[in-house]
Every structure is written in structure tokens, then in C-alpha cells.
UniProtKB/TrEMBL annotation:
<dbReference type="InterPro" id="IPR037066">
    <property type="entry name" value="Plug_dom_sf"/>
</dbReference>
<dbReference type="InterPro" id="IPR012910">
    <property type="entry name" value="Plug_dom"/>
</dbReference>
<keyword id="KW-0675">Receptor</keyword>
<keyword id="KW-0998">Cell outer membrane</keyword>
<keyword id="KW-0812">Transmembrane</keyword>
<dbReference type="InterPro" id="IPR008969">
    <property type="entry name" value="CarboxyPept-like_regulatory"/>
</dbReference>
<dbReference type="Pfam" id="PF13715">
    <property type="entry name" value="CarbopepD_reg_2"/>
</dbReference>
<dbReference type="InterPro" id="IPR023996">
    <property type="entry name" value="TonB-dep_OMP_SusC/RagA"/>
</dbReference>
<dbReference type="Pfam" id="PF07715">
    <property type="entry name" value="Plug"/>
</dbReference>
<feature type="domain" description="TonB-dependent receptor plug">
    <location>
        <begin position="127"/>
        <end position="235"/>
    </location>
</feature>
<dbReference type="InterPro" id="IPR023997">
    <property type="entry name" value="TonB-dep_OMP_SusC/RagA_CS"/>
</dbReference>
<keyword id="KW-0813">Transport</keyword>
<keyword id="KW-1134">Transmembrane beta strand</keyword>
<protein>
    <submittedName>
        <fullName>TonB-dependent receptor</fullName>
    </submittedName>
</protein>
<dbReference type="GO" id="GO:0009279">
    <property type="term" value="C:cell outer membrane"/>
</dbReference>
<keyword id="KW-0472">Membrane</keyword>
<dbReference type="InterPro" id="IPR039426">
    <property type="entry name" value="TonB-dep_rcpt-like"/>
</dbReference>
């Protein structure tokens, strides 16, 4: 069934791809048959290096091509025209053909980027006229040795805070926020748009850098208000590459890499484990110890590991390293009528889990990602252009039952000396085909190796997108008037199946110490089986449709005035085939109308006004539509006549900007909680009911009002203010500084002050929350050309974002003001203040009462309210939030002719995290509340190992260190020592060598001998070293340190162009 569905999907796509190839062949034929004047040439920069992607257009028309990786271009012309050569950061040149067949161009860089074009909401603008806060990153800067694009964001983009807490293939998305966490509502994630269409973060992760034309983040009200109710958390705006007129250009990039954990959690050896387990048993007065002297000594001797096991569960389950591959192939070209860009991608990621060859299936992670993309531009007339975009990505996953992170967390929960992972067959089991997994008692102890090897799961996650866009130049009606329309449909499909057997568990019996012989006894003969049972786990199908229409106008009035305007209408429709209930089965719909007006005077003074008018089905009629306006202005100071001489030589460019406006957010409350203006009543509520007559069995279920209607619930709204300065220095450096302030109000919250007399079972919700945030973004770029072919460039960025609660629904804390969240940072952690460890039992007895039987070596907490008892009222704000308040990145590159070297450093500061004292507590049985609720590992005996750091530094009678890393050992959980407190709080700051790369581009004279335009080979590494005081695991993982570790990658790649 799995292979049939996959084959059907691939065949359907291949049929579409075949139609595209026919169209491409036709366009190429048109190109070959044209008899117009052919002009070709090469575009170089000031260092005589080719400028890939430089644009060559025919002045006054929509025709144009892009330069290939060698900077070469070809274009067919039917008459004498002028060609416009442009590229980001370089001065645009207009050159007449004058009968020539070859035109080579050397472009000069500009620090003020007056001719640079910036992608903005629903279009493009010259950078000099942009008023909003937009940061643009060259896609090439996001190339990292990873199949996940989100892992490249940290430290690369001013205004974005990003961090990664897992390295598990398929589950390694980075968390990212634009200007930090600015709301404590349901959603604080940015809107992601790819070619104008909203995409989830999972699809951003699967995008290929080779296919991207631009990557921008939009941060302030002017930049985002056109998205109205979707733009409050910022917008990530991405466009993909399009074809160029000319011969087919083929580009191939292949990488192979080896990855390993940046840092593994270290556990104490089995001997130390048993010795400290005995110590833990005796610390509370227990005279019995779990491990005898004989067992410890015989285990130390290691003569009979089946009887006296010493299992290293890490090396048993995990590989030292794994190998991955990535391939991208793209072809672009076309003729006068049609142009195309077609790309195919294949990524293969293998996890760190081992596979047992005795199984005939793969239980380790094997993640394959495939991608196909085709963008076709067709000139229907001289004024009409049609664009067809098709894109599909699908992930084919094979892996263990559960997640790989589950198995990392199972390692610490397993006793290393109770039984081995498996037994070698004895004489009685010599013909047994199944694996003889170790266990104890009735086979009810955790054996992570058996859990790993017992089965596998497969899933396919596919996305298919088809988009049609048409652009019409309406100069024949009014010069400068243009219209466009775009329809997009996207389908998401996901299904998962699993197969598993019940493991056979064995233990040793009849052990003869003299001969070393023993018998293996099966502990679960009636419940275990060898066959692979089949289970269909989940299926999801989602359909999304989107339409937008744009009418725009721009013109110059005389020499001094430029005006522009735009109106955008859009509709969105989403429906799920796996709704589960009536409300969720209804299509989710949104409407929007947006507009922009721009005015410029003498290229010195710029004004812009925007609005978004959006409708959402979630609100009552009186609040269904929201209006979100914004205004902005800019002054290009360096374009003033007085900006000359010495000032201009030092400050070569200066632009001041300011914006103010409103942006909305309709992603409030749970996605299943859709229609706030409707009450939700359960007419068959079994927990309450009525009994009639004398028979108690005659019971009728009651009714429950699960939600009260609230017609006043409306949009969450953000009021944003942004002030910025763009400064060019010495024609070499460019500095952009943005300072901002934001007030978020109408945040949806559950009311905490609802009187019991109201008689509601579920507390109502209302827009009562408010928050403030402020911060600064700084971006610095430097480029310098040195003598004899040397060049050097550098970059740096810093993002500082601070937010706080202004209004928060909470109990009345006037008597205990330190318990209130108002005025504190969003995400502030509360906990106890740990002063130190108790000196001895007497001090513990004479101190304020804490939690349980407290002795010397347990954590001593501060009595904040002075009432002589430590309670929850003594919990105060501690540390920073877990989301960093500050992130930064520093990088440089240097090159000489064909050799290039670059490095990049990523940093984070002003964040805290907490070691999970319960999950890491030695010798105890632990399951989180979420695991208990889900039934995970229910009925299984667990016993934590001890971290090596705890073994080295814990309080004991022989080590009365009052600042020891771990307090007094216990064999059962100590309620007192498990509290969230400053004792287990750690500083999340770090500086990481994120990437280093060395590359070499072969001389063109050599590569052309074998028919290749360009060959570049490179080696790089990522996550190479981390500077941090925290050493238990990779500090960027925060409190998730027992999970799948971040990966250190060493990569070899080659890139070729034909």
C-alpha cells in the first residue's frame, strides 16, 4: 500500500513534468529558429570576477535574461535597442547596442545602493525609496551543510532571533522569532511567504538555497501592514529563481558530509554507578544496599559479562558518526517567448541510531527528501507575461518506533548493571531466530535496545503546489499602470504506518559459578512474537487555495516628483479531510484588501502610507473586519546639495527613516477553537446527569456548556514604531541601525476572576492581555579590494529584543507583589532562590520548614515572605527567559584569485535555562507529566543512571561542599531538591564557531577543455566549537540536553556549471 501510493504520486507528477519539458522544448526550438540579432557578453565586477544573476533587460520592455555563473549572457534582439545591466549593490548601466554582437560590462559597486531593488510586500521598490525596516540576505549566505534551511538563520539576519535545540533528522527545525517574542498569545511565529504564498515552517525547512532568488524579513508596520491580520509577528518573504533568455545553463551541486554530536552527555561507569547507588540508599538511614560487594567486584573484573553485565547503553544504541548526502541540479534558459527554471533536489540524512543485522529491516533513521521545481515565464504579448510555477517536495522517512529523541532519553533511564542488551544464544536456544533481549523479573524493565530493534515506522510527507500568475502592462490605458492576478493551490499529504514485533525477553538462571554455565529463561513466552504486526497510524490531507489581484501605478511628475500606488485583493481558503468534528470540517476562509501609496521628492524625501483591511471568520460580524494602517517617511540626507567635501568622503551615504502603524494577528486561541461568537454545548455529557425513579441504572446524561459565546473577541493588535539610520562609511562600509518599540494589545486570555456563582464549567476568554517590547537591530557590511587580486569582506549583526507583560490575567497579588507577572519579561520563569546546601541535619531541622524530610546536603531555599515556611509564595522571578534577548553574528571572507576562505561566528546572550532536576536525578524512576498522561512507558520499571558530572561533584559525608553541583544523593525522588530554583539555573550565553569554509575555483581555461564553464570545490565545517561555561551538553539545547544532540558536520562539496 505504501509503495502503491508513492508510485501513484510520482507518476502524477512526472506527467506534469513531461508537459513542462514539452513546453521547454518548444521554447528552445523558438530560440533556435529566431533570426534576430544575437548579442552576447560577460558581466564582471571591479575585481574581474563574474557576477552570477546580473540582470540584462531591454529598456522599455519586460524582456530580459540573467547572467550565468560565469557572468555570461545571451539575448536575441530584433532591432536596435538599449540594454540595461543591473545587479544588487552595483550601479545600473544602460548601453546601446549600436550594431555590436558582443558587449562586455564591468559593473561598479555602490555603497548607497541607489539602484538596488528590494523585495517588499506584493512587489519591489528601489532601495533608496524603501521606508520600512526590511533586512535582505543573499541566499548564498544561507548555504550550510544541512538539509534544513532554518538551521542557517541564527546570527545571519539582523532582527531575527533563532536557536536550535535538536539535531534529529526531520525534527531539527530551529525556533525563530522576528524581533523576539512580542506576545504571550497563542501564536508569536512570523508569517512565511514563498512566491507570495503562505507556507508553514516545515516547508521553509525543506527549501533549497540553490532555488532562492531573494530572502528578506520584514519587521516594522510599514513593511508588514499590507498583510493586515497576518503580519503582527513579522514576515519572511522569499522568492524563487526564474529562467533567463539564452542557451540552457546547467548547474550541479553535490555534497557529502560526516556528522557527529557536538557534545555527548557523559554517564558514570557501571562500577561508580553501583557504589554511588549504595551511597544514595544509605543517605536516608537505609541499612540495606542494592548492590553487594561481590557484584561490584565481579563486574569490575569483567570476566562474565552475561552474569555481571556492565552495559554502555550509549555505545549499544548509538553510532559515533553518520554520513549524509545532498544533490541539487537546476537548468535554466529559454527563448524570446518562454523562459524556464527547472530544479531537482535529493537529500539523504542518516541518524545516529544503530541497526541490528539480525533484523531484516532498517530501524535506524533513513530520511530522504525529494524536490522538484519548475518556474516558466511566457510572454503572451509584448505587454503580457504569464508565469507558471510548479513545486513539489516529499519526505520519505524510515525510522524507529517513536522518535530518536525518545531513545536518547531512554538511555539515562536504564540500569547499566541489571542485564545486558541481549544474550548470545546458549545450547537450548541455538536454533532460535529471534534476538534474545535481556530483562529482569517479569520482563517489565526498560530495555531501550529492544525497543529500538523491535520495529520501524514509515511516513511520507508530501506537498504539491501549482501557481499561475499573469502580469499585464496597461500603458495603453495609462502610462505606469499595471495589473496582475495570481491563483495558487497547495495540497499537503501525510500518512504513517508502522510494523513491530513483541520482543522476547530473557534472564539468566541456574548459574554455575565453578563452570560458568547458565541457562537462559524466557520471561514472556506467551506475549512475545516474531512476526511484524502492521498498524496504520495516521493520515492527513489538507488543501489550500489562494487568490490575489493587484493593480499598481507609478509615474514621475516632472523631474522632482514621483508617485505610486497599489491595491491588492486576496482570498484564502483552507480545508482538511481529517477534521474530526463539524466545526473543523468547515473551510477556513479569510479575505483581505490592502493598499500602498508612495511619494518621493527629488530622491531626497520619501513618504509612504499602507493599509490592510482583513476579514476573519472567527469573529462576530461587528468585529469580523479589521483595519490596519501605517505611515512612514525617509530623508536621504546624503542626496542634499550641502552633503559634499570631507563629510561625504567620511559618511558617503546617510538615510534616516521612521515608521508608525498597526498590524493585526488573528491566530489567537487554539486552532480548533474557531468561532468565538458561538456557544459550544455538549448535550450528552456523561460526567453529569439525572437519575429517575428507584433504579440507579436509569440515568440520563446531562449537558455541559463547554464554551460561552463572546461576541466581543477580536483581533490581537500590534502598534509599532520604528526609527532607523542607514550610514555608508568611506565608500567601504554600510551600517544600518533600527530602534523600535511595540505595544501589543487585545491578547486573548482565559479569565482568572470569574465568580463561582456564574455557574460555568469552563472559564471564559477575553482580549485582556497587553505587552510592550523594544529593541535594536544593527547590521554592518564591509567590503574592501586589496592589491594584486586580493579581496576581503566582513559582516556583523546584532539583535537585542526585550519585552514585558503590561496586563496579565492573574490572581490578586497585591499582598505578594513579587508573584505578579506585570512588568516582567514575557516568558519569565518563577522559582525558589537557592541559598546553598544545608551544612548538616541540625541546620536543616532549625531552618524554615521546606518540602519533606530535609537533611544536611539538601538545598536550602530563601524564605521570601518571612513566614517561617517555604511555600509557593516564596517563588520569585529568576533568571532570563529561555528565548535569548540578544543574538549576534560575525563573519569575514578573504580571497585571492581562485582561492576563498570564510568563517562565521554565532553568538547568543541574556537567556537562562534550567537543568531538569527530575529527569537527571540519579537512581530514581522518572516520567514527565506529559508521558504519564500519554501512557508512555507505563508499567515499565525505570532507574536513572548518574551523570559523570554529578558523580564527580555531589554532596556527601566526605564532601561537604555547600555549592556542589548535585545535592545529597537519594534512591527515591526528593521533592525538596526537584523544585525549579536558582540551583539548577544556568546561563544560556555562548559564542559558537558556526562555519568555516575553504574553496577553490578552477581556472576557466582548464575547465573549458572538458566542456565545463566552472568548477568549484570546497570543504567546510559547521558547529565546530562552542565557547560556554556550561559543559554537560551543548548549551544551545538549553533544558533539552538529554535529547538528540546538535550535530557537528564536516562537509565536502563540488559545484559545476555547464
Amino acid at each position: 500500500m505504501l509503495s502503491l501510493k508513492k508510485a501513484t504520486f510520482i507518476l502524477a507528477y512526472l506527467r506534469i513534468l513531461l508537459n513542462i519539458l514539452v513546453l521547454l522544448g518548444f521554447s528552445t526550438l523558438l530560440h533556435a529558429q529566431q533570426t534576430e540579432h544575437l548579442v552576447r557578453g560577460q558581466i564582471l565586477n571591479e575585481k574581474d570576477e563574474p557576477i552570477q544573476g546580473a540582470t540584462v533587460t531591454v529598456q522599455g520592455s519586460t524582456r530580459g535574461v540573467l547572467a550565468d555563473e560565469q557572468g555570461r549572457y545571451e539575448i536575441m534582439l530584433d532591432k536596435e535597442v538599449q540594454l540595461v545591466f543591473s545587479y544588487v549593490g552595483y550601479t545600473t548601466q544602460v548601453i546601446p547596442i549600436s550594431g555590436r554582437t558582443e558587449i562586455n560590462v564591468v559593473m561598479s559597486p555602490i555603497t548607497d545602493a541607489i539602484d538596488e531593488v528590494t523585495v517588499v510586500a506584493f512587489g519591489e521598490q528601489k532601495k533608496e525609496s524603501v521606508v520600512g525596516a526590511i533586512t535582505t540576505v543573499r541566499p548564498s549566505e544561507l548555504k550550510v551543510p544541512s538539509s534544513n534551511l532554518t538551521t542557517a538563520l541564527a546570527g545571519r539576519v539582523a532582527g531575527m532571533i533563532a536557536f536550535q535545540q535538536s539535531g534529529e533528522p526531520g525534527a531539527d527545525n530551529a525556533d525563530f522569532f522576528i524581533r523576539g517574542v512580542t506576545s504571550f498569545g497563542y501564536s508569536n511565529r512570523p508569517l512565511i511567504l514563498v512566491d507570495g504564498v503562505e507556507m508553514p515552517a516545515s516547508e521553509l525547512a525543506r527549501l533549497q538555497v540553490d532555488d532562492l532568488a531573494s530572502f528578506s524579513i520584514m519587521k516594522d508596520a510599514t513593511a508588514t501592514s499590507l498583510y493586515g491580520a497576518r503580519g503582527a509577528n513579522g514576515v519572511i518573504l522569499i522568492t524563487t529563481k526564474e529562467g533567463r533568455e539564452g542557451k540552457a545553463n546547467i548547474s550541479l551541486r553535490y555534497e557529502t558530509s560526516a556528522s557527529q554530536p557536538t557534545r555527548n552527555v557523559e554517564f558514570a561507569d557501571p562500577i561508580t554507578y553501583m557504589e554511588l547507588a549504595n551511597e544514595a540508599s544509605q543517605t536516608r538511614g537505609n541499612l540495606l544496599t542494592p548492590y553487594s560487594w561481590e557484584k561490584i567486584e565481579r563486574t569490575r573484573e569483567g570476566l562474565d559479562p552475561m552474569i555481571y553485565p556492565a552495559t554502555d547503553w550509549q555505545s549499544t544504541l548509538l553510532k559515533d558518526r553518520t554520513f549524509n548526502n545532498r544533490l541539487n541540479l537546476n537548468v535554466s534558459g529559454g527563448g524570446k517567448v518562454a523562459r524556464y527554471y527547472v530544479a531537482a533536489t535529493y537529500n539523504k540524512d542518516n541518524g545516529m541510531l544503530k541497526v541490528d543485522n539480525r533484523n531484516n529491516f532498517n530501524n535506524g533513521i533513513d530520511l530522504k527528501t525529494y524536490g522538484l521545481r519548475s518556474n516558466v515565464n511566457i510572454n503572451l504579448t509584448n505587454t503580457t507575461e504569464a508565469i507558471v510555477r510548479l513545486n513539489s517536495t516529499w519526505t520519505d522517512y524510515t525510522g524507529p518506533l517513536g522518535t530518536a529523541t525518545d531513545f536518547y532519553k531512554q538511555i539515562i533511564r536504564t540500569d547499566p548493571v541489571l542485564f545486558p542488551a541481549y544474550y548470545e544464544p546458549d545450547e537450548r536456544n541455538s536454533t532460535t531466530e529471534h534476538i534474545l533481549f535481556g530483562n529482569h523479573d517479569a520482563g517489565n524493565y526498560l530495555n531501550p535496545y529492544a525497543n529500538l530493534m523491535r520495529g520501524y515506522r514509515d511516513y511520507i510527507n508530501a506537498m504539491f503546489l501549482a501557481q499561475f500568475e499573469i502580469k499585464q502592462d496597461l500603458d495603453f490605458i495609462l502610462k505606469g499602470l499595471k495589473a496582475s492576478g495570481m491563483y495558487n493551490t497547495t495540497r499537503y499529504n501525510y500518512y504513517q504506518v508502522s510494523r513491530a514485533y513483541n520482543p522476547f525477553y530473557y534472564t539468566v538462571t541456574n548459574y554455575d559459578r565453578r563452570t560458568g554455565e547458565y541457562t537462559l529463561n524466557n520471561l514472556n513466552p506467551t506475549t512475545a512474537h516474531e512476526y511484524l504486526a502492521y498498524n496504520e497510524d495516521s493520515k492527513q490531507i489538507t488543501s489550500e487555495d489562494y487568490f490575489q489581484g493587484i493593480l499598481s501605478y507609478s509615474t514621475d511628475i516632472g523631474k522632482d516628483h514621483s508617485v505610486g500606488g497599489m491595491l491588492v485583493y486576496n482570498m484564502q481558503n483552507k480545508i482538511s479531510a481529517n477534521a474530526g468534528n463539524l466545526q473543523s470540517s468547515l473551510a477556513r476562509r479569510n479575505l483581505g484588501l490592502a493598499g500602498r501609496f508612495t511619494y518621493a521628492f527629488q530622491n531626497k524625501y520619501f513618504f509612504e502610507g499602507n493599509f490592510g483591511y482583513n476579514g476573519s471568520e472567527r469573529f462576530a460580524k461587528e468585529h469580523r473586519f479589521g483595519f490596519f494602517p501605517s505611515v512612514g517617511a525617509a530623508w536621504y540626507v546624503s542626496n542634499e546639495p550641502f552633503w559634499t567635501g570631507g563629510v561625504q568622503r567620511v559618511i558617503s551615504n546617510l538615510k534616516l527613516r521612521g515608521t508608525y502603524g498597526l498590524v493585526g494577528n488573528d491566530a489567537i486561541g487554539d486552532v480548533q477553537d474557531r468561532f468565538f461568537y458561538l456557544s459550544q454545548v455538549n448535550p450528552n455529557y456523561g460526567a453529569n446527569g439525572y437519575t429517575f425513579g428507584s433504579e440507579f441504572g436509569n440515568r440520563i446524561n446531562g449537558m455541559l456548556e463547554e464554551r460561552q459565546e463572546n461576541r466581543n473577541i477580536t483581533w490581537e493588535t500590534s502598534r509599532k514604531l520604528n526609527l532607523s539610520a542607514e550610514v555608508g562609511l568611506f565608500n567601504t562600509a554600510n551600517l544600518v541601525v533600527d530602534v523600535y518599540q511595540e505595544h501589543r494589545y487585545n491578547i486573548l486570555m482565559t479569565r482568572a476572576h470569574t465568580p463561582n456563582t456564574l455557574g460555568v464549567a469552563v472559564l471564559p476568554q477575553a482580549n485582556v492581555g497587553e505587552a510592550d517590547s523594544r529593541g535594536i537591530d544593527v547590521q554592518l557590511d564591509i567590503s574592501r579590494n586589496l592589491a594584486n587580486g586580493w579581496f576581503i569582506s566582513g559582516m556583523g549583526n546584532l539583535t537585542y529584543a526585550k519585552s514585558k507583560y503590561i496586563k496579565y490575567e492573574e490572581p490578586d497579588y497585591r499582598a505578594f507583589p513579587w508573584r505578579s507577572r506585570v512588568g516582567l519579561p514575557i516568558g519569565q520563569q518563577f522559582g525558589f532562590v537557592a541559598e546553598r546546601l544545608f551544612i548538616d541535619d541540625e541546620e536543616a531541622y532549625n531552618s524554615p520548614a521546606q518540602f519533606g524530610n530535609v537533611l544536611g546536603g539538601d538545598i536550602k531555599y530563601k524564605d521570601i515572605d518571612g513566614d517561617g515556611v517555604i511555600t509557593n509564595l516564596d517563588m520569585v522571578p529568576i533568571g532570563y527567559p529561555t528565548v535569548p534577548r540578544m543574538t549576534y553574528g560575525i563573519g569575514f571572507s578573504i580571497g585571492y584569485k581562485g582561492i576563498d576562505f570564510s568563517s562565521f561566528f554565532q553568538g547568543s546572550a541574556k537567556s537562562s535555562f534550567w537543568i531538569d532536576s527530575e529527569a537527571t536525578a540519579p537512581f530514581v524512576s522518572y516520567r514527565s507529566q506529559a508521558e504519564i498522561n500519554s501512557g508512555y512507558l507505563a508499567g515499565i520499571n525505570l532507574q536513572n543512571q548518574i551523570l559523570q558530572a554529578y558523580a564527580d561533584d555531589h554532596w556527601s559525608e566526605d564532601n561537604r561542599n555547600l555549592k556542589a553541583l548535585w545535592p545529597r544523593l537519594n534512591e527515591i525522588p526528593s521533592d525538596n531538591n526537584m523544585k525549579v530554583s536558582t540551583w539548577f539555573m544556568r546561563n544560556g550565553a555562548f559564542l559558537r564557531i558556526k562555519q568555516i569554509e575553504l574553496g577553490y575555483t578552477f581556472k576557466e581555461s582548464l575547465t573549458k577543455r572538458i566542456g565545463i564553464e566552472k568548477i568549484r570545490m570546497y570543504v567546510n565545517g559547521s558547529n565546530l566549537y562552542n565557547f560556554s561555561k556550561f559543559k554537560l551538553w551543548d548549551v544551545e539545547m538549553g533544558g533539552n540536553g538529554l535529547g538528540y544532540p546538535l550535530q557537528q558536520v564536516y562537509n565536502l562539496g563540488i559545484q559545476c556549471s555547464l
